[in-house]
Each structure stands twice: as C-alpha cells, then as structure tokens.
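Lecture 7 notes: from sequence to structure.

We start with a single chain of 109 residues. Read the sequence below before looking at the structure.
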Amino acid sequence: MSRSVKSAFSTYAYEHMNRGDLAIEANDVDGALREYAAAEALVPDNLEMRFWHGVSLVNAHRVEDALPIFAAIFQADENWRSLVPRLGAVGLLTADPAVIDRIVSAGRR
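Now the structure, written as tokens:
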C-alpha cells in the first residue's frame, strides 16, 4: 500500500475518532462505539485510537467492555499502562482509584 493511501486511511480514521468523541459528549455511547470501530478498521495497528476508545468506554461507565481493549494495548506496548493513572489525576479518565487499578492490571498474568 502506498504512503498516500495509508495517510488517507489515517485521516479518515481520525475523522471517525473525532465523530466518536462528539458522540460521547452527546451521551451517544453506541454511536461512539460505531465510529471508533470504523476508525480501528481503517488502521487496526494504531494503539492510540484503541487506547482512547478504552478511555471513552470507562468514562461512559462501561469498564468491563474497556478492560480487554486495555489488555491488548498493554500487551503490544507497556508504555500505555503508565498513562492511565496520569489521566485519572488530571480528570481525563473519570474513574475511581479501584477502577484505575483494574485498568492498570489488565492483561497482567
């Protein structure tokens, strides 16, 4: 696949992510999930998109749906794990400390 085609896929994927974020703001979790799924289908190896999908699920009180997403991300790149508590500290991840601990522990053996 050419670089310009990959770039176009990435651009379209971020458009889906933005629409998903807007849907979350409007409390349309199902609409957001559809947009996030469309974004991830375009660039399935983009961990950032998957990570923010998981964060949005947690913020929508769908922790159980988010945990497998976080586990897969952390297995691919442990660096994402350290971001979770920091997001909680600044209010971008609206979860209590017990939920944040569950997320950080996702995928650990």
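The chain is about 75% helix and 0% strand. Keep this in mind for problem set 3.
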